[in-house]
Write a structure and sequence with these properties.
- Helix content is about 20%, strand content about 30%.
- The chain has about 350 residues and is of the alpha+beta class.
- Keywords: Signal.
- It comes from Segatella salivae F0493.
- This is Lipoprotein.
Length: about 350
């Protein structure tokens, strides 16, 4: 009987650290969104992480650990590299700005393949003592594919992927407008045709909110204005106008020196009182005249997009995910990576028990 009690106490002593580690390494899932709302992985994107429901200490330094399509910080589970550090914005919100092809050191095709499982990730403290649960950050393959197949010339993507994009934009939700250059026309010609003209400079957008009440003009003689209002060609052949967050985009205009000139939306009180109704815009061809100066060319004519209501953020929903975890990251001496699929968000405890054996 004495030996049996000793065995039970020993077993409990071995299991308690495992339970403690499981609590520290499965601390919940952040709510994640991006600006731009939709993006290609060879251009800059900012991932935002709302950690309100994740059990990290408030404001603690956090680091990204991601492993698809490559594992940039492999081997540093107990001492994350500085390049993986997130920026803390306050109010439990963190962000990570990157160009994915550069961060993951691979080419764009790796992110466009149907075989790529997506941005599976975890957030962690530098020393690896605390880890979030596994989550998938959004990518835009399906949105671009569906848009191309729709036959539409233009589509508004407003909001967050997890709650569903809408074309009814709101003041504080990410907004990207995408154009199919083989369908969308200015003056009876497609963007593709116009872009081949010898005097073509770029496409831009002259726009405003609430019947032009808050204006972002397309001043073609101002380089900073051309950059801000540009409709860019993406690597997938589509064009995009990245508004970012409308309340920020329309909070300033640009003068001849490229300095910001505040609008009414730069004032917190005026912004709070602002009732958004619509966006007015013209897609404009910027051309170079015989003297070498930029001018307006063909344009879309006045267009209007109505606003919508903000959509509540849903609770995360999980499916099976790929997990590639190095044994060394989790304190065991496995000589090769552990590859498992688990239906319990993250099988950190399962991995440890397997290593323990």
């Amino acid at each position: 009987m004495k030996d049996f009690k000793y065995y039970i106490l020993t077993l409990i002593g071995l299991l308690c650290p495992l339970m403690t580690m499981a609590e520290e390494t499965d601390l919940g899932v952040p709510k994640v969104w991006t600006v731009p709302a939709v993006f290609t992985c060879d251009e800059e994107v900012t991932f935002y992480y709302d950690m309100t429901d994740v059990k990290f200490p408030a404001g603690v330094d956090l680091y990204l650990w991601a492993w698809t399509p490559t594992e940039p910080d492999a081997g540093h589970g107990d001492n994350s590299s500085s390049f993986a550090k997130l920026e803390y914005l306050g109010n439990n919100i963190y962000c990570k700005k990157m160009i994915p092809t550069q961060y993951f050191n691979t080419n764009i095709s790796a992110f466009e393949s149907d075989d790529w499982p997506g941005f599976w990730s975890r957030l962690k403290t530098k020393d690896g003592s605390k880890w979030s649960s596994v989550f998938q950050a959004p990518d835009s393959r399906s949105e671009f594919k569906e848009f191309k197949e729709s036959g539409k010339g233009v589509q508004f993507f407003s909001g967050k992927k997890s709650s569903g994009f809408t074309d009814k934009f709101t003041l504080d939700e990410p907004l990207t407008i995408v154009f199919n250059p083989d369908v969308y026309k200015l003056g009876g010609r497609t963007l593709t045709e116009i872009s081949n003209d010898a005097n073509f400079v770029q496409f831009g957008v002259h726009s405003g909110l609430n019947d032009w009440n808050v204006l972002q003009s397309l001043d073609v003689w101002r380089p900073a204005c051309l950059r801000k209002t540009k409709v860019r060609k993406l690597s997938n052949g589509l064009y995009a106008w990245d508004v970012g967050v409308p309340s920020e985009y329309y909070s300033y205009t640009l003068d001849d020196a490229g300095s910001r000139v505040p609008t009414a939306l730069a004032d917190p009180d005026k912004k709070a009182a602002f009732e958004l109704e619509n966006m007015n815009y013209l897609v404009v061809t910027v051309i170079r005249d015989a003297a070498g100066a930029n001018q307006w060319g063909a344009n879309s004519g006045d267009q209007m997009q109505k606003t919508g209501m903000a959509v509540p953020y849903p609770n995360p929903v999980f499916s099976l995910f790929p997990s590639r975890v190095s044994g060394k990251e989790h304190g065991c001496a496995l000589s090769k990576p552990v590859e498992r699929i688990c239906s319990q968000s993250e099988c950190g405890e399962c991995i440890r028990l397997w290593c323990f054996n």
